[in-house]
Amino acid sequence: MLGGIILIIAGVLILMYPLLLSIIVAALLILLGVIVVSIAYHNRKLRRHFDNPVVELFFRL
């Protein structure tokens, strides 16, 4: 319910301020990039500790 209300308010704000859409999309893309880099960093860090091929297969899935 709360999520729907927030999405409706966001939609109205985007209609009123079209620049807001580009800001939201840019922020989401930046956040997604940071998450992907963080996951890759931690995966590489864990790979150094575990040289077991079964563990590497688990991380690749």
Tell me about this structure.
This protein has 61 residues and is mainly alpha-helical. It has 3 helices and no strands. The mean pLDDT is 82.
Mind sketching the topology for me?
Blueprint: H1 2-16, H2 19-49, H3 53-60
Strand elements, count: 0
SSE string, helices as H and strands as E: HHH
Distance between the termini: 34 Å
Q: What is the share of helical residues?
A: over 70%
Précis, in short:
The chain has helices spanning 2-16, 19-49, 53-60.
List keywords for this structure.
89% helix; 61 residues; mainly alpha; 0% strand; elongated
